[in-house]
Amino acid sequence: MELTPSWTSSYVLGNDTSGDGGDEGWGQRYFYTYFTERGNRPITARVECGILLIIFMLSVVANLSIAGAVLRYKEMRTVTNCFLLNLAVADLLFAAGTPLVALARLTPVWQFGSVTCRLLPYSQFVCGFVLLWTLTLISMDRHRCLAIPPYRSELTPRRALLLTAATWLIAAILFLPVAAWFRYYPDTRVCTLVFPPNDHVNLSLFFVVPVTCLSCLLPMSLLAFHYQRIFHKLVKTRSRWMVGGQCAEPREQRKISIQQIVNGGAGVRAGSLTHHEESRLNKHIRVARIILLNVLVVLIMWLPITVVMFLIYVDGSRPTADTNFFLRSHHFLWALLIALLNTVVNPLLYGFLSENFRAYLARMWLGAKHGPRDDCASRAASIGNKTQLSMGDLLSTRQSMHSLDLVCGRVA
């Protein structure tokens, strides 16, 4: 008995034409199934569906909480929180298609028609673009606040809203071809992306390479660069703990090491720091740890879908006679699932880790009468009154105050 090749679960032979009833096109070719997968796979499909629905519910609850806190309380409408509101909206819209993807995994063929076939991938591409660029704008604003004198943002909430509106407009225009090129083929009942043939220009290459660079590689590179600069600033900071006009520690012991940051500042005090100084130093270390986490999360969750989409393009460039396909539909599904998981992680990382956000969320959920405690302000103000400089080599007093605000939740 001849075994059916595994690639037939994700590639379907069909006939491509330029339009309804048209004669031009690629003719006979294999279509990648993207959201659906052929074959008998009831258990796997249910597992995929369950995971997708769990991610969807968590994303909706978390992002609605972030958006609700920013919209409900006027004092929460800061520059960074405007970015976070836009991030929550992008997360919600990106996750909105998850139930449809889950249903598609339960059926071997596409059952949702032509319009949905075009709108679902288009909306996901647009939201993914906005999501990544919003994270990048946050990193750029943080970089200016923490690493570039005079250590303050040049943005206002109005400018932040204009920037976020620009990202939506650019994304909506940039991915219009996706809505045109994703098509539903009734004869094979598959929703797939087919680039139109052109005798003069390789449209697929002309579209895939610059769009991948602009929507994925460039924002991820900028985000990593800005957070690396902030991290570098914090790591190379030297502490001057003055005791009677003399340094309490030898010069070679004053530098904050990467190992101390990863370990949460263990071993920093060495018996010479006051409780107040140790607390401030640990807050700087916590900022650096969060920065590391920011970069790792973006790279881990967005590189897979970037790589898979490029490999789909490579796999689809084969001649019809070549059936040595190495990708399967579940590769796309799991890469998409990891990117969708980012819609749950974002509100946790940028919102719930903030003391200020947690206080306002508790006020919104539990009806607490009091807002967040203002002890962060008193601790930050006390820096200016101290004669001992905690981070004098590289961080000014103003930067230290801003870092405390960052950790305490005033800046997400």
From TrEMBL:
Gene: nngr-a43
Compartment(s) of residence: Membrane
Similarity comment text for this entry: Belongs to the G-protein coupled receptor 1 family.
Pfam families membership: 7tm_1 (PF00001)
Transmembrane segments: 50-71, 83-102, 122-140, 161-184, 204-225, 290-312, 332-353
Keyword check for Membrane: yes
Residue span(s) of domain G-protein coupled receptors family 1 profile: 62-350
InterPro entries the record matches: GPCR_Rhodpsn, GPCR_Rhodpsn_7TM, NPY_rcpt
Keyword annotations of the record: G-protein coupled receptor, Membrane, Neuropeptide, Receptor, Transducer, Transmembrane, Transmembrane helix
Natural source organism: Nilaparvata lugens
Primary location: membrane
Recorded superkingdom: Eukaryota
Listed GO MF terms: neuropeptide Y receptor activity
Name recorded for this polypeptide: Neuropeptide GPCR A43
